[in-house]
């Protein structure tokens, strides 16, 4: 099984979810498309690692709500103990930055301002989600025994990364202003 499969199990160990919800939740640490998630969910179900129930919806197609099985939980726990593979970083913006000298100053500044705007939106979302977690779970959120602890850690990490990205963009814009 690949790391995305384990990531899906990690989402489902917290709570049952639809494929759409899983794709949204993964955003914190994995960029996955629906075309990756749904076939993998089918394989996880065939392997007995997840189950699903149909939920009827009015005016929409029925949806599947997936849950992790005991077999899936055991496999996830075993995987969690192993050292991870080195991270893969793919960021088109950084590839453009590498060749930024080929463009003009106005274009470069625009690209960095756009990056900052996108990250400011992410920061606002992240802060709101962290606030909700703290309100809902209180001090429990900062305990390793809480099933929400990992999500809290990831949201805090993402927030710090996003704040650092904006600081870096401001630094670059300062260089471009010279």
What does the model show?
The longest helix is centred in the last third of the chain and has 33 residues, at 105-137. Helix content is 63%, strand content 7%. The chain has a two-stranded antiparallel ribbon with strand order 1-2. It has 178 residues and is mostly helical. It folds into two domains: 3-80, Winged helix-like DNA-binding domain superfamily/Winged helix DNA-binding domain (Arc Repressor Mutant, subunit A, Orthogonal Bundle), CATH 1.10.10.10; 92-177. α1 packs across α4 (70-80). It has helices at 3-14, 19-26, 34-46, 70-80, 92-98, 105-137, 149-177; strands at residues 50-55, 63-68.
Question: How would you concisely characterize the structure shown here?
Answer:
This protein has 178 residues and is mainly α.
Q: What is the topology, as strand order, of the major beta sheet?
A: 1-2
In total, the number of strands is 2
Give me the strand/helix succession: HHHEEHHHH
The structure class reads mainly alpha
- Helix segment tally: 7
Number of domains: 2
Helical content stands at 55-70%
Overall pLDDT confidence = 93
Shape: elongated
Cα separation of the termini: 51 Å
Biggest beta sheet summary: 2 strands, antiparallel
What fraction strand? 5-15%
- Rg, nearest Å: 20 Å
């Amino acid at each position: 099984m690949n790391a995305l499969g384990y990531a899906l199990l990690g989402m489902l160990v917290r709570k049952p979810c639809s494929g759409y919800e899983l794709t949204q939740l993964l955003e914190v640490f994995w960029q996955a498309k629906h075309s990756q998630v749904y076939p993998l969910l089918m394989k996880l179900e065939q392997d007995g690692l997840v189950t699903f129930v149909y939920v009827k919806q009015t005016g929409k197609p029925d949806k599947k709500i997936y849950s992790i099985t005991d077999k899936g939980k055991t496999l996830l726990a075993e995987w969690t103990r192993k050292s991870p593979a080195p991270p893969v970083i793919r960021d088109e913006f950084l590839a453009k930055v590498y060749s930024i000298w080929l463009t003009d100053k106005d274009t470069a500044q625009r690209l960095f301002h756009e990056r900052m705007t996108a990250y400011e939106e992410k920061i606002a979302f992240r802060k709101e989600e962290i606030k909700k977690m703290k309100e809902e779970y209180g001090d429990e959120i900062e305990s390793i025994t809480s099933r929400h602890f990992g999500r809290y850690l990831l949201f805090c990490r993402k927030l710090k990364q996003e704040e650092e990205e904006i600081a870096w963009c401001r630094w670059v814009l300062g260089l471009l202003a010279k």
